[in-house]
Design brief:
With 390 residues, the chain is an alpha/beta fold. The protein is built from 11 helices and 17 strands. The chain has a domain of 126 residues. The strands form 2 sheets. A 14-stranded mixed β-sheet has the order 9-8-7-6-5-4-1-2-17-16-3-15-14-10. A 3-stranded antiparallel β-sheet has the order 11-12-13, covered by helices on one side. The chain is globular, with a radius of gyration of 23 Å. The relative contact order is 0.15.
Length: 390
């Protein structure tokens, strides 16, 4: 199951807000746009809904007006979920499969939901700020809800322009018999983009050198000449009395070819560490895949040189192509070199129009325009700078 499209609007109590209408996605997507064009906001509009649906205790507390309409494709089924709230009150919620209504509720918390036993719509009433979809979760009576909720638990956001755990030291105590995790535990581990050390340690414990060898091979494919990756316990100095009695945290290190020196994560360049962290976390996710996953990567390639950025993008696209039945990849960039090395077939150009609405242009929305540009002979970045997509 993958994300087919999203419509989203956001209006704060003061200000104009912004919106995007029916932005469509394929299995591999590169969202390209200028700075402040809405790339990151688009990714976060997806992730913010995911965060709400990932908690069965979530309540609306914001004094803003927000609306989502997402569509998911699951083989021959299209799942549509619309969710709106305004001033701490949920105003609309609808769940449909192939246009058949399975759940609906209004601003008073009153609604109806389809039951399997008996097979009919039955009325309910909940708090005005409580989400019906998560509140009514019942695998026996409402099994249709599980598909959307499983998808929400299988969406992972990585901010490549951020730290990705570089300043985070972690001590992970694992009992030898505690290597199998239930879905909730595994989801919590996977959702933490700062948790690269626990993921590396768990990956090594569960999968041994196969896990590390995969990370090393991928790291070297993007032109980092490294022969070992591992963790070591951080040693506090004698002056750090305040840490006495606390667990000693672990940190990552690498060893480059031609050297025996350990380079600890604090001394690894930010760009290099971002690439390492992302590969460790994606490898951990790949080794633990239990359902189709949607991977969101913001500012892919940020902070690393052109050659490595290009190789990283190629590697991610290759992995997504090989795992197309298990992974949907959605990345953002404003880097011209990244754009030039990713096929226009994967592009979604976002452009802020008047009134703070975000327009989008993709091969699926305008196939003739994209095919015509390929015949011109210019590079992909010209398509962007010359605004041929318009």
């Amino acid at each position: 199951m993958y994300l087919k499209s999203i419509s989203f609007s956001h209006k704060p109590s003061k200000g104009d807000g912004w919106s995007i209408e029916n932005c469509s996605f394929d299995s591999i997507n590169l969202i390209a746009g200028k700075n402040a064009s809405g790339k990151t906001r688009l990714l976060h509009s997806i992730n913010n809904l995911v965060l709400l649906l990932s908690s069965d205790k979530a309540k609306i507390k914001d004094n803003i007006s927000v609306n989502w309409l997402i569509k998911l494709q699951d083989m021959d089924e299209e799942i549509a979920y619309e969710f709106s709230y305004e001033d701490k009150r949920i105003t609309k919620e609808e769940f449909k499969i192939n246009d058949d209504l399975y759940l609906t509720r209004n601003s008073e918390g009153k609604g109806s939901i389809r039951y399997t036993e008996p097979d009919q719509m039955i009325n309910f009433e909940i708090e005005i700020n409580k989400i019906a979809l998560t509140s009514k979760r019942d695998k026996k009576q409402h099994p249709f809800l599980e598909k959307l909720l499983i998808w929400a638990n299988s969406v992972f956001l990585y901010n490549f322009g951020g730290l990705l755990g570089k300043n985070t030291l972690t001590k992970l105590e694992i009992k030898s018999d505690k290597l199998e995790f239930d879905m909730n535990e595994l989801t919590e581990i996977n959702k933490d983009e700062e948790g690269v050390i626990p993921k590396f340690i768990l990956g090594m414990k569960k999968f041994g050198n196969d896990f590390k060898d995969r990370v090393l091979a991928d790291f070297n494919k993007i032109k980092y000449d490294v022969k070992d990756i591992n963790t070591v316990s951080y040693e506090f100095s004698e002056l750090d009395n305040k840490f006495k009695g606390l667990p000693i945290p672990d940190m990552l290190y690498i060893v480059e070819n031609g050297s025996s020196d350990k380079i600890f994560q604090r001394d690894i360049s930010q760009g290099m560490f971002r690439a390492l962290s992302l590969l460790i976390q994606l490898t951990f996710l790949e080794f633990n895949l239990a359902s189709h996953s949607t991977i969101l990567i913001d500012d892919i390639g940020e902070g690393i040189d052109f050659e490595r950025s290009t190789e990283l993008i190629k590697l991610l696209i290759y992995k997504a192509e090989q795992l197309k039945d298990k992974i949907q990849l959605i990345m953002t960039t404003n880097d011209r070199f990244v754009m030039n090395n990713v096929s226009l077939d994967y592009w979604i150009v976002v452009d802020k129009s008047s009134g703070n609405n975000i327009d989008f242009y993709s091969k699926s929305s305008n196939p003739k325009l994209f095919e015509t540009f390929k015949d011109i002979g210019l590079n992909n970045f010209d398509f962007f700078t010359g605004e041929y997509y318009k």
